[in-house]
Structure prediction request, 550 residues.
Amino acid sequence: MISSIAELISDRIGTMPAGERRAAQTLIANYPLIGLKTAAEFSAAAGVSSPTILRFVARLGFQNYPEFQSTLQDELAAQLQSPASRTLNPSSLGGSAVSPMLEATLDNMRETFRHLSDKQLADIVAKLADRRGKTYLIGGRFTDPLARYMAAHLAIVQPNVFHLAGQESIWRDRLIDMGKRDVLVIFDIRRYQDSLVRFAETAHQRGVQIVLFTDQWLSPIARFARHVIAGRTAVPSAWDSSAALFVVAETLIGAVTRQLEADSAKRIRELESLR
Amino acid sequence: MISSIAELISDRIGTMPAGERRAAQTLIANYPLIGLKTAAEFSAAAGVSSPTILRFVARLGFQNYPEFQSTLQDELAAQLQSPASRTLNPSSLGGSAVSPMLEATLDNMRETFRHLSDKQLADIVAKLADRRGKTYLIGGRFTDPLARYMAAHLAIVQPNVFHLAGQESIWRDRLIDMGKRDVLVIFDIRRYQDSLVRFAETAHQRGVQIVLFTDQWLSPIARFARHVIAGRTAVPSAWDSSAALFVVAETLIGAVTRQLEADSAKRIRELESLR
DNA sequence: GGAGCGCTGTATCGTATGTTACGTATTTTG
DNA sequence: CAAAATACGTAACATACGATACAGCGCTCC
Prediction:
């Protein structure tokens, strides 16, 4: 079973003529980056001519150079998305049944936060903590609980936080109260829901700022969103994982609370006395 | 000090017009691979035109698209050569506000799963997948969204899954339908809610098996529970974190789905056709 | 409400890139 | 040692890619 181009090469390098072998060796030595550059640059690095490079990729079974590059990119993409598979050898850890799921989830979180800058989060926190406008939250079929979770916390540290629940017609009607100063937090991962997209579009037209929690393939709502948080969702399960988005949500909740510390502390005391 | 293109983007994304911001977001979400493809493919993925992509890279300070791609490749090369440097976020070095939160959460998860045996999980899965009885789910003030999340998934792979929502009196009345073969999944972390404890006690008296998700200090409901999952909740925030429990929930969802694979696949197909 | 500015997409252009044909060099085999 | 076959590079070609000019549109600010 040959899965990567690197394996394919080492499998066939013996049957190659001298020039192509030099190409193969340079590619292996700088794998896979040389292969992503132009055929001319590749040929220069290998010290051969560009036609030799083309014959080389043809011998590997590719129709043309772009096809070869695409395959390399796909390979790279697969590597970059699951850091674990690359860093640790499979035999090193004890074979627990649950740990693949846990490991994947931990990777997803690290990866999600790696693509999330402090500045981006700070901007979102500032917007969520801005009390001149209202905050609305809504989610899709499986992610609506995340919207609820976030709403439950935010509603405690500040007024004017609303979770949009129930039937579509109900929350569509709420659009009438939304305007420029307001924020709409939407959770939407595959398979993206049309109803949410329509809702987001209308809200956007009304000038509402949208904060979108989605997966790495980006919900179509990203079109209308002011801020996009792309979480990794891939786990060894029949379902996608929302855990990374959940942690981002908790991080934001914590940051908003700290931001509003003075006010929220007072508010929380008041709430306590109401019980 | 800006070292990577990703940082550069998050630094300037605030000043970008809508179209270029979409480009920026898609690049961040699929970093950095989309940027290595052609401008046309990039533009299609971002849902904008190719000139917008070119204006985007120009705004980042590049003379032309190839120069932008070369920089991305160099960055990738540096990463691939020292795998260690990739795993840590550059911002985690200089006192970032978010990464303590992430680190604590990751620790919580590892710690939570360390105290969770495969056998314990397998028992719970077996019980949840047992279709002779009904499954009820409920949670506390902040954890009810977790109950909803779990219910939303379980209800798809098997019948007779119910989330108990609304006012206390409503779900108390549902006790009448609960019996020995049924399972009640409860989420309860500090501060533990009296209403839930009373509910759990009554259910227990009726012979209902209780699966409890709680924190490491154990809700009083643990007294009545057949299975207890104790998650770590401590994070540097004003709030406790439910993320570890969330991941356990997802793990169970995945395991139950696999357990019921044959039946659930058929069921899911049926559901699809109902849309 | 009107004028100005800035953003974005369409269409066109030039060019860099991959591709192919061909001739020479090199190796292999009878 | 000779002849043939294979490999390799040079040069011409075509395509597809990035760049640019321009027009339409929405937005903001008087």
Remarks:
- DSSP finds 13 helices and five strands in chain A.
- The domain at 5-81 of chain A is CATH 1.10.10.10 (Arc Repressor Mutant, subunit A).
- Residues 17-20, 48-52, 55, 66 of chain A lie near DNA strand D (CB under 10 Å from a C1').
